[in-house]
Write a structure and sequence with these properties.
Length: 302
Protein backbone atom coordinates (compact mmCIF):
# COMPACT_ATOMS: atom_id res chain seq x y z
CA UNK A 1 0.00 0.00 0.00
CA UNK A 2 1.42 3.43 -0.88
CA UNK A 3 2.32 5.77 1.96
CA UNK A 4 -0.68 7.92 2.85
CA UNK A 5 -0.44 11.34 4.42
CA UNK A 6 -2.81 14.21 4.95
CA UNK A 7 -1.37 17.34 3.35
CA UNK A 8 -2.63 20.84 2.88
CA UNK A 9 -1.66 24.10 1.23
CA UNK A 10 -2.85 27.26 2.93
CA UNK A 11 -3.41 30.67 1.34
CA UNK A 12 -6.16 33.25 1.15
CA UNK A 13 -7.15 31.87 -2.24
CA UNK A 14 -6.38 28.15 -2.02
CA UNK A 15 -7.06 25.47 0.56
CA UNK A 16 -6.57 21.91 -0.57
CA UNK A 17 -6.72 18.90 1.73
CA UNK A 18 -6.54 15.29 0.64
CA UNK A 19 -5.28 11.97 1.92
CA UNK A 20 -2.29 11.62 -0.38
CA UNK A 21 -0.51 13.72 -3.00
CA UNK A 22 -2.22 13.18 -6.35
CA UNK A 23 -0.06 11.53 -9.02
CA UNK A 24 1.41 13.52 -11.88
CA UNK A 25 1.90 17.28 -12.09
CA UNK A 26 0.68 19.52 -9.32
CA UNK A 27 -2.81 20.97 -9.99
CA UNK A 28 -2.63 24.26 -11.91
CA UNK A 29 -4.25 26.29 -9.14
CA UNK A 30 -1.54 25.12 -6.75
CA UNK A 31 1.26 25.71 -9.25
CA UNK A 32 0.40 29.40 -9.07
CA UNK A 33 0.84 29.22 -5.32
CA UNK A 34 4.52 28.39 -5.83
CA UNK A 35 5.32 32.09 -6.07
CA UNK A 36 5.61 32.39 -2.30
CA UNK A 37 6.53 35.91 -1.28
CA UNK A 38 9.42 34.70 0.88
CA UNK A 39 10.87 32.50 -1.87
CA UNK A 40 14.16 33.56 -3.47
CA UNK A 41 15.70 31.28 -6.08
CA UNK A 42 19.09 29.90 -5.07
CA UNK A 43 21.82 30.85 -7.53
CA UNK A 44 23.75 27.60 -7.07
CA UNK A 45 21.34 24.67 -7.08
CA UNK A 46 18.83 26.35 -9.40
CA UNK A 47 21.55 27.18 -11.93
CA UNK A 48 23.18 23.73 -11.97
CA UNK A 49 21.42 21.00 -9.97
CA UNK A 50 23.84 18.32 -11.20
CA UNK A 51 26.94 20.10 -9.88
CA UNK A 52 25.14 20.90 -6.63
CA UNK A 53 24.45 17.18 -6.36
CA UNK A 54 28.22 16.60 -6.48
CA UNK A 55 28.59 19.18 -3.69
CA UNK A 56 26.13 17.32 -1.50
CA UNK A 57 27.95 14.06 -2.24
CA UNK A 58 31.24 15.67 -1.15
CA UNK A 59 29.66 16.68 2.18
CA UNK A 60 28.11 13.24 2.64
CA UNK A 61 31.39 11.51 1.77
CA UNK A 62 33.18 13.51 4.46
CA UNK A 63 30.54 12.47 7.01
CA UNK A 64 31.40 14.81 9.88
CA UNK A 65 28.40 17.11 9.46
CA UNK A 66 25.88 14.26 9.48
CA UNK A 67 27.56 12.77 12.55
CA UNK A 68 27.21 16.09 14.37
CA UNK A 69 23.55 16.42 13.34
CA UNK A 70 22.81 12.97 14.71
CA UNK A 71 24.59 13.82 17.94
CA UNK A 72 22.46 16.93 18.43
CA UNK A 73 19.14 15.36 17.40
CA UNK A 74 19.18 11.81 16.08
CA UNK A 75 16.19 11.38 13.77
CA UNK A 76 15.98 7.59 14.11
CA UNK A 77 12.37 6.75 14.89
CA UNK A 78 11.17 10.37 14.70
CA UNK A 79 9.19 12.46 12.18
CA UNK A 80 11.54 14.85 10.34
CA UNK A 81 10.80 17.87 8.15
CA UNK A 82 13.40 19.18 5.67
CA UNK A 83 12.67 22.82 4.78
CA UNK A 84 14.15 23.79 1.42
CA UNK A 85 14.73 20.19 0.39
CA UNK A 86 16.00 21.10 -3.10
CA UNK A 87 16.29 18.00 -5.27
CA UNK A 88 15.76 15.83 -2.18
CA UNK A 89 19.33 14.58 -1.93
CA UNK A 90 19.17 14.08 1.85
CA UNK A 91 15.61 12.73 2.06
CA UNK A 92 16.35 9.00 1.43
CA UNK A 93 19.25 9.21 3.90
CA UNK A 94 16.93 10.57 6.58
CA UNK A 95 14.22 8.06 5.65
CA UNK A 96 16.55 5.10 6.19
CA UNK A 97 16.05 5.45 9.95
CA UNK A 98 13.36 8.11 10.54
CA UNK A 99 9.74 7.24 11.18
CA UNK A 100 8.75 9.61 8.39
CA UNK A 101 10.41 12.32 6.30
CA UNK A 102 8.72 15.28 4.63
CA UNK A 103 10.53 17.60 2.25
CA UNK A 104 9.23 21.09 1.48
CA UNK A 105 10.47 22.96 -1.60
CA UNK A 106 9.12 26.06 -3.42
CA UNK A 107 11.10 25.81 -6.70
CA UNK A 108 8.95 23.87 -9.23
CA UNK A 109 11.94 22.31 -11.03
CA UNK A 110 13.64 21.15 -7.84
CA UNK A 111 10.31 20.07 -6.37
CA UNK A 112 9.72 17.61 -9.20
CA UNK A 113 13.25 16.23 -8.92
CA UNK A 114 12.76 15.64 -5.19
CA UNK A 115 9.45 13.87 -5.79
CA UNK A 116 11.04 11.62 -8.40
CA UNK A 117 13.86 10.77 -5.99
CA UNK A 118 11.57 9.53 -3.19
CA UNK A 119 8.86 8.01 -5.35
CA UNK A 120 9.74 4.51 -4.14
CA UNK A 121 10.50 5.52 -0.52
CA UNK A 122 7.43 4.55 1.51
CA UNK A 123 8.07 6.84 4.48
CA UNK A 124 9.07 9.97 2.53
CA UNK A 125 6.97 12.67 0.88
CA UNK A 126 7.65 16.01 -0.81
CA UNK A 127 5.31 18.99 -0.92
CA UNK A 128 5.27 22.51 -2.30
CA UNK A 129 5.89 25.13 0.37
CA UNK A 130 8.33 27.63 1.79
CA UNK A 131 9.75 28.61 5.17
CA UNK A 132 6.81 30.93 5.82
CA UNK A 133 4.21 28.56 4.31
CA UNK A 134 4.78 25.03 5.58
CA UNK A 135 2.05 22.62 4.34
CA UNK A 136 2.21 20.64 7.57
CA UNK A 137 -0.27 20.28 10.42
CA UNK A 138 0.35 21.84 13.83
CA UNK A 139 2.65 19.84 16.13
CA UNK A 140 3.30 17.19 13.48
CA UNK A 141 7.12 17.02 13.53
CA UNK A 142 9.80 16.03 16.03
CA UNK A 143 12.79 17.46 14.13
CA UNK A 144 13.05 20.20 11.49
CA UNK A 145 16.14 20.80 9.37
CA UNK A 146 16.93 23.77 7.14
CA UNK A 147 20.19 22.83 5.43
CA UNK A 148 22.19 25.66 3.83
CA UNK A 149 18.99 27.40 2.81
CA UNK A 150 20.02 30.87 4.06
CA UNK A 151 16.46 32.01 4.65
CA UNK A 152 16.78 32.14 8.43
CA UNK A 153 18.28 35.24 9.99
CA UNK A 154 17.33 38.87 10.46
CA UNK A 155 13.76 39.39 9.20
CA UNK A 156 12.84 35.67 9.21
CA UNK A 157 10.58 35.75 12.28
CA UNK A 158 7.58 34.54 10.29
CA UNK A 159 9.51 31.48 9.10
CA UNK A 160 10.67 30.64 12.61
CA UNK A 161 7.09 30.99 13.87
CA UNK A 162 5.99 28.47 11.22
CA UNK A 163 8.68 26.02 12.33
CA UNK A 164 7.58 26.35 15.96
CA UNK A 165 4.00 25.76 14.87
CA UNK A 166 4.77 22.41 13.21
CA UNK A 167 7.13 21.18 15.95
CA UNK A 168 5.83 19.02 18.76
CA UNK A 169 6.61 19.98 22.35
CA UNK A 170 10.22 18.96 23.01
CA UNK A 171 11.01 19.00 19.28
CA UNK A 172 14.23 20.38 17.80
CA UNK A 173 14.88 22.77 14.92
CA UNK A 174 18.38 22.88 13.40
CA UNK A 175 19.32 25.55 10.88
CA UNK A 176 22.54 24.43 9.18
CA UNK A 177 24.58 27.45 8.11
CA UNK A 178 28.15 28.42 7.29
CA UNK A 179 30.64 29.16 10.07
CA UNK A 180 32.64 32.16 8.87
CA UNK A 181 35.24 31.67 11.57
CA UNK A 182 36.93 28.48 10.41
CA UNK A 183 37.91 26.57 7.28
CA UNK A 184 38.95 27.09 3.69
CA UNK A 185 35.36 27.73 2.63
CA UNK A 186 35.25 30.74 4.95
CA UNK A 187 38.49 31.97 3.37
CA UNK A 188 36.79 31.85 -0.01
CA UNK A 189 33.86 33.81 1.41
CA UNK A 190 36.26 36.48 2.66
CA UNK A 191 37.74 36.72 -0.85
CA UNK A 192 34.35 37.01 -2.54
CA UNK A 193 32.04 40.02 -2.45
CA UNK A 194 28.69 38.69 -3.69
CA UNK A 195 26.36 35.71 -3.31
CA UNK A 196 26.65 34.12 0.14
CA UNK A 197 29.55 36.48 0.86
CA UNK A 198 27.03 39.33 1.06
CA UNK A 199 25.38 37.74 4.13
CA UNK A 200 26.11 39.37 7.47
CA UNK A 201 27.21 36.47 9.74
CA UNK A 202 27.33 38.62 12.89
CA UNK A 203 23.77 39.77 12.27
CA UNK A 204 22.67 36.17 11.79
CA UNK A 205 24.34 35.09 15.06
CA UNK A 206 22.69 37.97 16.92
CA UNK A 207 19.27 37.12 15.51
CA UNK A 208 19.54 33.51 16.66
CA UNK A 209 20.69 34.56 20.13
CA UNK A 210 17.64 36.82 20.39
CA UNK A 211 15.51 33.75 19.63
CA UNK A 212 17.15 31.62 22.34
CA UNK A 213 18.97 29.30 19.94
CA UNK A 214 22.19 27.48 20.77
CA UNK A 215 25.09 27.79 18.33
CA UNK A 216 27.32 24.77 17.74
CA UNK A 217 30.38 24.94 15.48
CA UNK A 218 31.22 21.85 13.44
CA UNK A 219 34.54 21.31 11.68
CA UNK A 220 33.52 19.40 8.58
CA UNK A 221 34.71 19.20 4.99
CA UNK A 222 34.06 18.53 1.32
CA UNK A 223 35.59 15.31 0.02
CA UNK A 224 35.15 15.47 -3.73
CA UNK A 225 35.74 12.48 -6.00
CA UNK A 226 38.65 14.30 -7.70
CA UNK A 227 40.45 17.64 -7.74
CA UNK A 228 38.68 18.45 -11.00
CA UNK A 229 35.30 17.83 -9.40
CA UNK A 230 36.29 20.02 -6.45
CA UNK A 231 37.16 22.85 -8.82
CA UNK A 232 33.81 22.49 -10.62
CA UNK A 233 31.94 22.68 -7.31
CA UNK A 234 33.88 25.76 -6.20
CA UNK A 235 33.12 27.52 -9.49
CA UNK A 236 29.43 26.94 -8.86
CA UNK A 237 29.68 28.75 -5.51
CA UNK A 238 32.23 31.49 -6.27
CA UNK A 239 33.33 33.76 -9.15
CA UNK A 240 36.05 32.34 -11.41
CA UNK A 241 38.56 34.98 -10.33
CA UNK A 242 38.15 34.01 -6.66
CA UNK A 243 38.51 30.29 -7.42
CA UNK A 244 41.57 30.91 -9.61
CA UNK A 245 43.28 32.86 -6.83
CA UNK A 246 42.40 30.22 -4.25
CA UNK A 247 43.60 27.27 -6.33
CA UNK A 248 47.00 28.86 -6.90
CA UNK A 249 47.80 28.26 -3.24
CA UNK A 250 45.91 24.96 -2.88
CA UNK A 251 47.28 22.08 -4.91
CA UNK A 252 46.47 19.22 -2.57
CA UNK A 253 43.57 16.81 -3.03
CA UNK A 254 42.53 16.28 0.63
CA UNK A 255 39.04 17.41 1.76
CA UNK A 256 38.36 21.13 1.67
CA UNK A 257 37.86 22.30 5.25
CA UNK A 258 34.32 23.55 5.77
CA UNK A 259 33.10 25.21 8.96
CA UNK A 260 29.42 24.78 9.75
CA UNK A 261 27.29 26.61 12.32
CA UNK A 262 24.33 24.69 13.73
CA UNK A 263 21.66 26.96 15.19
CA UNK A 264 19.58 24.76 17.48
CA UNK A 265 16.19 25.89 18.77
CA UNK A 266 13.78 23.85 20.88
CA UNK A 267 10.00 24.02 20.80
CA UNK A 268 9.64 24.15 24.57
CA UNK A 269 11.65 27.33 25.09
CA UNK A 270 8.53 29.40 24.44
CA UNK A 271 7.00 27.98 27.66
CA UNK A 272 9.84 27.45 30.13
CA UNK A 273 7.54 26.87 33.13
CA UNK A 274 5.85 23.84 31.55
CA UNK A 275 7.03 20.48 32.84
CA UNK A 276 7.86 18.23 29.89
CA UNK A 277 9.41 14.84 29.34
CA UNK A 278 12.89 15.28 27.84
CA UNK A 279 13.17 13.26 24.61
CA UNK A 280 16.37 11.48 23.68
CA UNK A 281 17.52 14.01 21.07
CA UNK A 282 17.10 16.92 23.54
CA UNK A 283 19.18 15.09 26.16
CA UNK A 284 21.88 14.42 23.58
CA UNK A 285 21.97 18.09 22.58
CA UNK A 286 22.36 19.18 26.20
CA UNK A 287 25.12 16.60 26.76
CA UNK A 288 26.93 17.85 23.68
CA UNK A 289 26.69 21.49 24.72
CA UNK A 290 27.93 20.67 28.23
CA UNK A 291 30.95 18.97 26.67
CA UNK A 292 31.66 22.06 24.61
CA UNK A 293 31.42 24.34 27.65
CA UNK A 294 33.69 22.17 29.80
CA UNK A 295 36.25 21.73 27.04
CA UNK A 296 35.75 18.00 26.57
CA UNK A 297 36.16 16.88 22.97
CA UNK A 298 33.23 15.88 20.81
CA UNK A 299 34.08 14.06 17.59
CA UNK A 300 33.71 16.32 14.55
CA UNK A 301 32.67 19.30 16.65
CA UNK A 302 34.71 22.25 17.92
Amino acid sequence: MPHRREWRIRSSAVLCVCRSRPPGPFPSELETYLSFKDFRRADNIAADPQTYERENEAIARDGRLDAALREVADWAGWDLLDVGAGTGFWLPRYAASAASVTGVEPDPQLLQAARDRVRSVDNADVMAGSAEHLPVADAAMDIVHARFAYFFGRGADAGLAEVRRVLRQGGTFIAIDIDWGWGEFSELLQMATNGNAAIDPDGTDTWWREHAADRISVRAGWQAASSQEMETILRLEFPDAVVDEFLVTRERSDPLSFGVALFVAHRWRRRPTTRLRVPRHRARAESMIRALVTGNSVDGVA
